[in-house]
Design a protein that fits this description.
Low-confidence stretches: none
Bound molecules: 4'-phosphopantetheine
Number of domains: 1
Shape: globular
Order of helices and strands: EHEHEHEHEHH
Largest sheet: 5 strands, parallel
CATH topology: Rossmann fold
Mean pLDDT: 95
CATH class: Alpha Beta
Radius of gyration: 16 Å
Distance between the termini: 56 Å
Length: 165
């Protein structure tokens, strides 16, 4: 069985991520989505359990998709789950430099291949960092995230809830 590993911070999981997981699920017999810790980023908005639950709920319509949450190296997880490849979405050239470096390092570390999937143009501007910022200031991001994520974000930051200070 050919398995793809789709790793990311997913803080939060958005429609661009979902589209990549859906496409990976069409290309591979099984897909493991991994919510991971990015050591380059600060404290996450949602903890591992919340991110895992949101991704599970958002991908419940897909067969062969399993969600894990863990710290550690992507290559170690890839070998643990028997992944044939890591799948990453690319939104723009700006994503490419960092992703290329990680793909090359991961290949040298373990021999695993990374497959880049171009994000649909409808999602090329959608980024978790920006969604967190809009939501934090009371903006409505429900058009850009799956329903389970919109619900969690609205609980955390009520829409229209910006305050004067
Ligand atoms: O969604 P992100 O923040 O771009 O995801 C990046 C992630 C989590 C996939 C990356 O930070 C990562 O690979 N973290 C695990 C640690 C690791 O394997 N580092 C070596 C990368 S070459």
């Amino acid at each position: 069985m050919r398995t793809a590993l789709v790793p990311g911070s997913f803080d939060p999981f958005h429609n661009g991520h979902l589209e990549i997981v859906e496409r990976a699920a069409r290309l591979f017999e099984s897909v493991v989505v991994a919510a991971m810790r990015n050591p380059q980023k600060g404290a996450p908005l949602f903890d591992f359990a919340e991110r895992k639950a949101m991704i599970e709920e958002s991908t419940a319509h897909l067969g062969g998709v399993r969600v894990v949450a863990m710290t550690g190296l992507v290559v170690d997880l890839a070998s643990e789950v028997g992944a044939s490849a890591i799948v990453k979405g690319l939104r723009a050239v700006s994503d490419f430099e960092n992703e290329l470096q990680m793909a090359q390092l991961n290949e040298r570390l373990s021999g695993i291949e990374t497959i880049f999937v171009p994000t649909h143009s409808a999602y090329s501007f959608v980024a978790s960092r920006l969604l967190r910022e809009v939501a934090r200031f009371g903006g409505d991001v429900s058009a850009f995230v799956p329903k389970p994520v919109a619900t969690r974000l609205a609980e955390r930051f009520p829409v229209g809830g910006a305050s004067r200070g």
